[in-house]
Amino acid sequence: MDTKSQIVGTGGQKGLLPRFRRNRKLKLIAKNYDLYLMLLPVLLFYLIFRYVPMYGIQIAFRDYNPGLGFLKSPWVGWEHFERFFSSFRFSRMIVNTVMINVYQIIFQFPLPIIFAIIVNEVRRKRFKAFVLNTTYIPHFLSTVVVVALISTVTNPEYGVINQLIEYFGGEPIRFLEESSWFKPVYVGSGIWQNMGWSSLIYLGALAGIDPVLYEAAQVDGASKLQQIFRITIPCIMPTVMIMLILKIGGIMDLGVDKVLLMQNDLNIYSSDVIPVYVYRTGVREGDFSYAAAIDLFNNIINFLMLLSANRISKKLSGSSLW
Amino acid sequence: MNLKVRRKKKIYFNSDTFVMWFIYLLLAFVSVLMLYPLIVVLSSSVSDPVAIIEGRVRLLPVGFSLESYEKVFANKDITRSFMNSVRYTLVGTAVNVVMTILAAYPLSRKDLVGRNPLMMIITFTMFFSGGMIPSFLVVRNLGLMNKMWAIILPGAISTYNLIITRSYFQNNIPSELQDAALIDGCSNSKFLLKVVLPLSLTIIVIISMFYAVGHWNAYFGPIMYFSRKNMYPLQVVLRDILMSAQSADMATSDAVLSTRFFEIERIKYATIVIASLPMVIAYPFIMRYFEKGVMMGAIKG
Question: Which residue of B lies nearest to A240 if distances are taken between CA atoms?
């Protein structure tokens, strides 16, 4: 039962309400003291592992010294940012990070939607379950295993892909050691791993479409394709837009571990990306402030992209995150 | 006569039927594509390494033997890291589930004073974070380097899982039940233990599995916080094996290295299988729960 409405209902006169409410609140807090005890470790967790690091962002403007800590390390202003912007790797890293995400938006993003629409047309339950189950499996493999699978199937001597290429008369390709192949392999394996699982959210949206719409369309003689274009796609558009906003808001986001595992000296030209650089300079080489500055720059770009994508989507399609 | 033939034709070459056939073929192809790499690795793990290197293992095992698995189980690095992974997964998941319930239950209660501000504080962390370096420094300054807690505490709660658990409680625990119990003098904590949790096994299984998969597959956390080899989980050791296979591959001219190369090739695939096995075995049992979990997130967000 909603206690607020109860209060309003019994409170009657307006003048009495605030004091009455405050007492009521205190009583509620006292009565539910054990709920607050439950929340205590939770709030401690958010404070220590989420808000203290946010507070620690200021080391991006300081020269972090482990002995002096977040607060007492000397202030250096924009120095780390300037160093990053003038680094020869700056433009290369920005281009790589953004381009991988752009490829993902073009090639990886639409596939789960198309897959969900297609699977949704299947009426044979067993076949449908089989297809869905097999496409979910790769999602549960670890990144290490996925990268191992990539190197197995692309192995220049015995990998299946190169055997096929040779069968059709081509030259074997060293996919993991050629810069030009890094991004296609990265995005392609991402599709393999996540297409099925990402389609779940769209399958959920498809399940929510009122079947009456399809029945009416059938009565009017609409073909399957017409139904898909006139009913299915418009109905899941809000979900698609939300996912697209989130994806654009992460235009500079990349999982660190997969690039880290796929990167080597031979493909560094196109695998040099910001998150991995942050890890290497910060965690490995101990250049904490410089790495934190790069990470902050990255986060701010992401946040701005999220805001603008959200605004544009709100104007164009009416769907937005908030 | 003419009319009849025409009608029959229409049924056979109806565009919808054609589309359906196309769909079935396409989906069957997609399934094969998904499964193929997994089958090849499984076959390779029980094949003769010479056959693998010559590219003869294309689908089924060639020269079947379980020697690779014997070698893997005799390898101390692998067995120790396997046990580490099991430990991290069990402890980590237990911490995750307890913390998530402790967060989700009070926040699901409409009579919790301060519920909205608390939710704001929590959801804000989904959109903005301090980033890798400050988080790393917090863990380091807490003295957690090379301790199991370094990979468990910083991820103790996933806000996404918190939100789906909270909406599960809100939608599945009748408030009349709660009112009745509280009026009868049942405390909140007792109500949570005796009534809410038994009614919420579905969501508990779902989030346990989400968390467990994350712990089992974790690679980045361990390499960031662990420098001692005896702390490594299986994924990190697997990575080391793969790397040494690669470096041995580049120097096969040397006779000594070449035998080493075969040794590594032999255990490589078996280790990949073992590193994926727990999740693949658990998979059929938990699948329907997983689907529910994601759908819930999709609908109620």
Answer: B298
* Side-chain half-sphere CA neighbours of B247 within 13 A: 6
Residue among B271, B214, B66, B30 at smallest CA distance from A152: B271
User: Torsion-angle region of residue B153: left (phi > 0), alpha (psi -120 to 50) or beta?
Assistant: alpha
- The answer to whether residue B90 neighbours chain A at the CB level (below 8 Å) is no
The predicted model gives B168-192 an average pLDDT of 87
Please provide the DSSP assignment of A100-168 as one string: HHHHIIIIITHHHHHHHHHHHH---HHHHHHHHHHHHGGGGS-HHHHHHHHHHHT-TTT-HHHHHHHHT
Contact present, B102 and A41 (Cβ < 8 Å): yes
Separation between Cα atoms, residue A239 and residue A255, nearest integer Å: 23
Residue ranges of domains in chain B: 1-65, 67-301
Q: pLDDT by residue (tens digit) across A224-242?
A: 888 999 999 999 998 999 8
**ipTM of predicted complex:** 0.88
Q: How far apart are CA A109 and CA A93, in angstroms?
A: 22
Which residues in chain A have Cβ-Cβ distances shorter than 8 Å to B135? Answer: 49, 53
Secondary structure letter of residue B111 according to DSSP: T
Among A252, A298, A305, A253, smallest CA distance to A81 is for A298
pLDDT digits (tens, 9 = 90+) for B219-270: 999 999 999 999 999 999 999 988 887 776 665 555 566 677 777 877 889 9
Asked if the C-beta of B219 comes within 8 angstroms of chain A's C-beta atoms, the answer is yes
- In chain A, where the domains are located: 3-72, 79-316
**Residues of A whose CB is below 8 A from B58:** 160, 163
The answer to whether the CB atoms of A25 and B113 lie below 8 A apart is yes
CATH number of A79-316: 1.10.3720.10
Per DSSP, chain B holds a count of helices (H) and strands (E) of 16, 0
Note whether B131 contacts A57, CB cutoff 8 Å. Answer: yes
Protein fold of B67-301 = MetI-like fold (1.10.3720)
Q: For A141-189, how does the pLDDT look when each residue is reduced to its tens digit (9 = 90+)?
A: 999 999 999 998 998 888 889 989 998 988 889 998 899 999 999 999 9
Taking each helix axis from N to C end, the angle separating B76-108 and B159-172, rounded to the nearest 10 degrees, works out to 50
Q: Tokens 């590193």 map to which residue?
A: B275
Closest CA to A155 of A178, A172, A138, A179: A172
- Strand partners for A75: A62
Q: Residue written as tokens 């493909």?
A: A267
As given in the structure block, the two tokens for residue A251 are: 């235009």
